Amino acid sequence: MIKIIKTIAVVLLLGSLNLSAQVKVPVYLDDTKSIQERVEDALSRMTVEEKVGMVHAQSKFSSAGVPRLGIPEIWMSDGPHGVRPEVLWDEWSQAGWTNDSCFAFPALTCLAATWNKDISLLYGKSVGEEARFRNKTVLLGPGVNIYRTPLNGRNFEYMGEDPYLSSKMVVPYIKGVQSNGVATCVKHFALNNQEVDRDKVNVNVDDRALYEIYLPAFKAAVQEGGTWAIMGSYNLYKNEQCCHNQYLLNDILRKEWGFEGVVISDWGGAHNTLQSISNGLDMEYGTWAPGMAWGKTNNYDNYFLAKPYLAMIKSGEIGTKELDEKVRRILRLEFLTNMNKNRPFGAMVSEDHVLAGRKIAEEGIVLLQNKNNVLPIDLSKTKRIAVIGENAIKMMTVGGGSSSLKAKYEVSPLDGLKKRAGAQTEIIYARGYVGDASSEADGYSTGQDLKETRSADELIAEACNVAKNADYVIFVGGLNKSEHQDSEGADRLGLGLPYSQDKLISELAKVNKNLVVVSISGNAVAMPWVNEVPAIIQGWFLGSEAGNAIAAVLVGDVNPSGKLPFTFPVKLEDNGAIALGEYPGSNGQVTYNEGIFVGYRWNEKQKIKPLFSFGYGLSYTTFEYGKVTSDKKEIADSDKITFTVSIKNTGAREGSEIVQLYISDLKSSLPRPVKELKGFEKVSLKAGEEKAVSITIDKAALSYFDPDKHSWVAEPGDFEASIGSSSSDIKGKVAFKLK
Ligand code: BGC
Q1: Alpha-carbon dihedral of residues 12, 14, 15, 16, nearest 10 degrees?
Q2: What is the CATH number of the domain that holds 391?
Q3: pTM
Q4: Annotated catalytic residue: which of 78, 266, 436, 442?
Q5: Residue 609 forms part of a structural domain
Q6: What is the CATH number of the domain that holds 248?
Q7: Which protein residues are within 6 Å of ligand 1, measured from CB?
Q8: Is 351 domain-assigned?
Q9: Which of 11, 327, 487, 662 lies at a C-alpha separation of 20 to 30 Å from 115?
Q10: What is the distance between the alpha carbons of residues 252 and 184, in angstroms, rounded to a whole number?
């Protein structure tokens, strides 16, 4: 009897619990409710301490949720080329996990060089899946700071010199990542175009350059990509730190563009409590402030937006309006990510990621020169290939700063070529030069031992000896991810190749006429030997599949189709900022006196012939452009105009061409660039095939930013559309008028 009563009691109790649970699901946990309602409900349940707890970090890469309410912690990770290995709670060194190896995707310069929006979507979706699998809320990337000079150590993490190209390429990346319920954090907003003095340099830039060159990719990321987060930059603008900057964050980002997402400080980019409260910052990360010690626990309480903020609220010095706004935005991020029950589960180093990484790498590689069609290598006629150079063996996924990865695997160019060549063709290797023999970043080592004791002359002699008896010589050099190369925290010291590579290349060219230079870098380099070398390939940092992708291009499994996302100047002084002495600035100030004339805009204005132009890249086949036509001769304010050209593959093999549309304003009341990229289309053609390519633009493509009116203006009058295969190889033009 007692047993029966007990059972009935338990059933009743469970029933009532169940019932109450059903009746009382709080609004913030009810996903049939709108995000706005859920945000307001959650906010109304939180104490001031809990709110302050959300607006600053609690470890190197995380911030607190609200444990009492079951609102999860927020976890972030770099970004942008793969998911960074775990570091210790309080320090940059490795946490030593054994399950945090990722797939390394190619660097963003390579992605930009594909000029392929579908490939950008694939990139974002894939890297987002890795972030999701690793339970990250926010992926710290992509970066879209404009390539202002070839010296910026972080150019490899960005998308080149052109605001239109980077705007078009950033949007699909964001959509791809966020389709996983992981936020992108587009960085570094804004004007972070050099690493020298990055945390203390104030950038003086006129409004035209700001709006026409430096902001468009961020605006596209917000308005077209719908990014859920943005990272402030280290530098200053109008003498205010960009991480809490009234003009950039409140006026432009929020008021002008309507950004609803979260602004995250760069690591250590916040410097002041009151400005952090008032000037648009939502989450403070990485602060190193007086009174803090390395590894001391609860450093985070001393953050500008921690105890000092709470104290100001408690003393009545400041209200909670700003705090509520910040927390609203963070809660919104939570509902879109961690608290979105429908988000997928992600995947790590999946077969799909390998294929995606390889495809991105293959499409981004740029063939810069191919005299006498020395490439592709016909393996059936090739007995011996000499591979020379440190970058043929050096792992490049480790180093470079915050984008350093712990890749599950990385195929070196040497191994990729060996695998592809098989037993028929002998591959012999010589080091040729010693660059940076180190193999470690943040306590993670590649395990490679690159120590070398021979002198430079001995290495050159050995390389030439190996090279002279080979059918082909593949020199793999360029830059690497060490300080003053392609790396965060410092800039390059010059345009030239380091480690006496120029001398080595010239010597190799003397002993073998079939020399191919594969330059691994995220930046332009000087090529004084350009006329001595028949073939040159721009190889970027290609990630896990690097060697396979390079081999595929060298032997012609893949027909190269990438085009340069930035200008290669002949010499450093051909770059506008450098020519005007406006880099890296002095006394904490840098002035962008070149204004809107960045990259090819400068070369064209000054009539300086570059080594390789923006938009340039060759193929193993040839394309013939037909006559360019337009559907109208004159357009009105609200019209669109379409330009069409037929492209024929006139070679013997399939290939892809990137058709580029540039617009020139023939007469304008303000100075304008000779022409500007306003459209592009990548088209794949079989041998002999011909296709018509159409590109449509509207008034926005004709506009400039008028600083007096503070708005975009398209002046009626004569315009010209140029269609070309690069910025310097225009195939046809059409004149038209804006009424
Ligand atoms: C970099 C950011 C990065 C952050 C976190 C900073 O030094 O500038 O790009 O996301 O560190 O690692």
Answers
A1: 90
A2: 3.40.50.1700
A3: 0.96
A4: 266
A5: no
A6: 3.20.20.300
A7: 78-79, 140, 187, 266-267, 402
A8: no
A9: 487
A10: 19
